[in-house]
Amino acid sequence: MIHLKKILRTGFEYMEDVFDAAFGPAWNPFYQLGALGWFYYWIVISSGIYLYIFFDTGITDAYLSVEYLTHEQWYAGGVMRSLHRYASDALVIMMLMHLLREFAMDRFRSSRWFAWFTGIPMLWFVFSAGITGYWMVWDRLAQYIAIVTTGWLDTLPFFGESIARNFLSNADLSGRFFTLMVFLHIALPLLLLFIMWIHIHRHTQPKVNPPLGLAAGTLVMLLVVSLVKPAVSHAPADLGIVPAVIGLDWFYLPIYPLLDRYPGEAMWMVLGVITLLLLLLPWLPSGKQQAVAVIDLDNCNGCGRCVADCPFSAISLGPRSDNTGYEQEAVVDNRHCTSCGICVGACPTATPFRRRSGLTAGIELPELQISEVRDKTLAATGKLGGNDRILVFGCQHSMDLSALEDSRTGVVSMPCIGMLPPSFLDFVLSKNLADGVFLTGCRDGDCYFRLGIRWTDARICGERDPELRQRVPQQRIRTYWGGLTRSKQFLRELDAFRNGLNALATCNQNVPEPGQEGNGHKDIGNA
Amino acid sequence: MPRTGRIAGQIIAYGLFAAGLGYFSNAPVYTWLDPGFALINLSFSHAGQRKEECRRLTPAEIAATAPNMRQPLDCPRERVPVAAELVLDGISLLSKSYKPTGLARDGASSAYERIPVRPGQHQLTVRLRDSRRGDGFDYEENISINLRPRQNFVVDFRDNPGRFVFK
Questions:
Q1: Whether residues A230 and A131 fall in one domain
Q2: What ipTM was estimated for this complex?
Q3: Do B25 and A89 lie within an 8 Å CB cutoff?
């Protein structure tokens, strides 16, 4: 499964490269799949409300009212119907791509099981809502769907009377069935909305709206396709005539041809097993689980920065449990923590300048404490020489950086780049441990831990606490968010950065840079 | 990428997505039934006889049951499967037995079969057995039908008055 995920992730990243070039990271649809799903959902709901105003239930009324909307009122009802259909189709695509991408990126384990687990039932709700929608039109396609669906439902053991017999002939048909369909077609999307809300419940700042430009572009696209190829009905349903050849919506109905070939019981079994496997995926063997963040009350003053920065709402402020005089303390919810370390990067006490023999931050990852990050920084920079020494801080969910290490390049990796407090950049440069600091990690706009890159950029730019001190020369800092596959571009960026450092060294040969405390290596082992 | 190039890239991406949506939302067409064929749809929901005859309880057996549960007959609930046979122009199209529904197998047997046939003039014989008899059928009907292409010809069985209905 690891290889499958890596292949999928590589495939996604190559596609995303193309879309990054056209849309830029902020608008790249691949980084907005969930948000686009929400957007399409609202289009479906809005257009559905309009259609419902004109829709009539009844054996002949249903078809006639949809025909009226489509043809007599093509400029409004017809466009709304087409938007309703195409946005629904786009929703299916976004949902399945989102599922596949989260699987490929391994974003379903640990505490992230919740979003994954609550996302799977949505598949059933979306497809069921789509099927009931097609049923309501009561054309030949609806007739086909009614016959095959009820036949399939009849294979379940808990229906005493055959449901399919309701669709034997025109004389057997009851208008009450359409009332049931309308009820289901409204109830299912409402339930879906409820699950969607639960789905994002544990996320801080969930992305439920795509960027305005992307939303506008996709809406215009839907309008154009609605006008160029309006959604139309088949001929009216007639149970005396077999709907022999049908134009299926392959986004919603791909299972129907299979139902014609394989027994209904087998199809229930297959879909049930697939659903169960998907639901259990977060608990399948995955290797070692990282230990969750822990609070060190001696160093926590309850400032709340870790609470604000945690992408998974895993930290809250609670009443103080010691007698230090502070009002609050950070509390980690182990069930939500993904061990990303972004909270450590936010903690003001996580500074390598602290003059203590044992550096401990107010919040720590047990498996990579901040003192260890400092030790690694010192070790990685200790063996560097020349005027273009670069220390690369990287994240463990992007490309492997170990091959970079040489006499001019040191590497320190951590679970997420958001774990790096900005004071480390100041530390490295002001102590002259390296001539430049290079930060890399996941793709811009697509951090494995959601917000690590965003917070890092904001901290370096001085827009978010803890800010990078102004004395730090920005020309000696470079970021490149390359993900797994952009190694060539990464090396080019690194070379360009090194050339820039060399140029700086030439310019400032005799002029010490502001913020530098000296040119020689200091003994900072006890800093 | 220059601005014009990016805009062109976006237009291409949106265009491809829109084309995919527009096409796959109702194409390629699916052939459920060869339009040159007709369909015979055999369907019924009919309860077979009870598997065993009711047995009159002895006075001792009645006395052994709770006073509020006493009744003279013991009738096992399970029913026999309903067997159906469909013969078209002397050729058997279907010969199948349908189990009763329900956990105690005491519900009606349901059938829903779709059988494609060539259109035209045919002689159709349909038989049904709902009793405990081992062979033979309790109901049989012969009709001459003229099927049109894509016609859905329904063969139903109605409990009351206990005969086949053709639609």
A1: yes
A2: 0.88
A3: yes
